Amino acid sequence: MSEFTFTLPPETLEAIAQRVADILEERQSQTSPGIVTRWLTVDQAAQYIGANRQRVYDLRSSGRLSRHGDGGRALVDRHELDELVEGETG
């Protein structure tokens, strides 16, 4: 079997990465239709990252996630959660 290698310009690679991110976001919204807003409840945040509620509370308590709320509800910024997860896997 022969090996084939080619180099992509950075802007092409970035365009591919952005398209993949768009596809994944679209699939996520289809599989979890309630999770499309910026602000998530603790239950939604746990579902979004595939963890239990206590993990989300622990991340908030440790300061790894900012504390936000609306009255008596604890809220999580989805963008901040994305950054935290990407930082742990990247």
Describe this structure in words.
The protein has 90 residues and is an alpha+beta fold. The chain has a three-stranded antiparallel beta sheet with strand order 1-3-2. The chain is elongated, with a radius of gyration of 17 Å. The two termini are 32 Å apart.
Sequence-ordered SSE layout with sheet pairings:
Elements: H1 10-31, E1 39-41, H2 42-49, H3 53-61, E2 68-70, E3 73-77, H4 78-89
Antiparallel strand pairs: 1-3, 2-3
What's this, in brief?
The protein is 57% helix and 12% strand. The protein is elongated.
Defining traits:
3-stranded antiparallel β-sheet; 4 helices; 90 residues; 57% helix; elongated; alpha+beta
Question: Total number of β-strand segments?
Answer: 3
Structural class: alpha+beta
Helices and strands, in order, run as HEHHEEH
Largest sheet: 3 strands, antiparallel
